[in-house]
Amino acid sequence: MSNQVGIIKLVNGPVVKGDHMASFKVNEMVTVGKQKLIGEVVSLEGNEATIQVFEETEGLRAGEEVYPTGAPLSLTLGPGMLGNMFDGIQRPLKQIEKISKNFIPEGIGLLSIDPTSPWEVKVVVKEGDVLAPGSIYATIQETLSIEHRLMVPPTIRGTVVEVKPSGIYTLNDVIVKLATEEGDIHELTLVQKWPVRRPRPIQKRIPIYKPLITGQRVIDTFFPVAKGGTVGLPGGFGTGKTVTQHQLAKWSDADIIVYIGCGERGNEMTNVLEEFPALIDPRTNRPLMERTILIANTSNMPVAAREASIYTGITMAEYFRDMGYDVAIMADSTSRWAEALREISGRLEEMPAEEGYPAYLPSRLAQFYERAGCVTTLNNHEASVTIIGAVSPAGGDFSEPVTENTKRFVSAFLALDKKLAYARHYPAINYLTSYSGYVSMLEEWYRENVSSEMLPLRAKMIRLLQEEEKLNEIVQLVGEDVLPNDQHLVLEI
Predict the structure, then answer these.
(1) For residue 3, what pLDDT band results from cuts at 50, 70 and 90?
(2) Could you give the CA distance from residue 88 to residue 73 in angstroms, rounded to a whole number?
């Protein structure tokens, strides 16, 4: 880590320009000004650097200093995440509430999961064992249904030279010491750090073959979602995107739910925070929060932290996937995230593309959705991350850039319809504009677990619905009386 500090030259909302920063790295996490606000270097040009700050920059002045940390923006991954509620950069909101009642104060630093909480650790390795990346060295029964498996970080392998007995430990206690071939000693605690923008490594991707049972008949029958799949959920204002995602979080058969409220209204997040702790998990008859992580970045929170929030969520999801769990991640909504990108891009004075969004919007969306998948983990478990991303097109216009680009990268598209929503038909999934690319992949599963008739019947029903739509157009022109009896029947059905 370099000892050189940068000097603030310009402050423009969440974007800060600094001088004397040639020794800093791109994507390095830095602390800015006297309040030590958390930021990230987004570009370097000679001695000058551009930093996006994840907190409010009110009161920041030119001439204050920028300090390096030597590491990229990373998460602390370990026990204590389930049932917890974080902001966009993994700071626990319950802990912050004790410090400041109503708002997140500036300069509180990078708090994370509570390092003082005691955990009952069961150690499963002994001296002399050779551990590879991803090997499990201890387990913690974090909640009644979820066993937290402590894994060797993906970059380390070695022989166990020292091991503590099973017992009560806190997050930073050393449980196992590993000696590498080079002779280095690595200390393994209850936590590991991982940079949010880098996908966690896996052994291999495997073809998708089993559905994510959502508990919603229209989805499971007509537009199935697969474990490890990607889903776009676009809909105008009031069509029920958030409610549909709540239903999927409650009833889907994923082991763990990560819910990201990205730029949503404060009252919607309040509903989630009040509703989820009260919900009973149909699997265990225990609170649903025991297998849920909430990330709340409401629309009045700092815009740069919103940009980081979906990476925070997907990194947590990959961590639990590496233990062998099926994880479903709800991003509500990627449009607000794209708006954060657009605002930061404008302040960086980048050339705007369609509707003012940055030219790299499609590649950022692709990077996010590509982190879904059904995989074999480093410790030979089969696991998956399923991404369900809500899109809020302005005025319900599906031809705007975020919806159009999302459509390119997802395999299931559940379009919510204003007319159906106003007719109180929920979930308001339009059966003509929605589709699922997973039907053929799941064919064998349906044949073995439901019925060999299932998919032919589904195709027949979709054909009927399409025919009915055509007939409705004729009826509006010439009236119902001119139709033959068989077409009358289709309309009745």
Answers:
(1) low
(2) 12
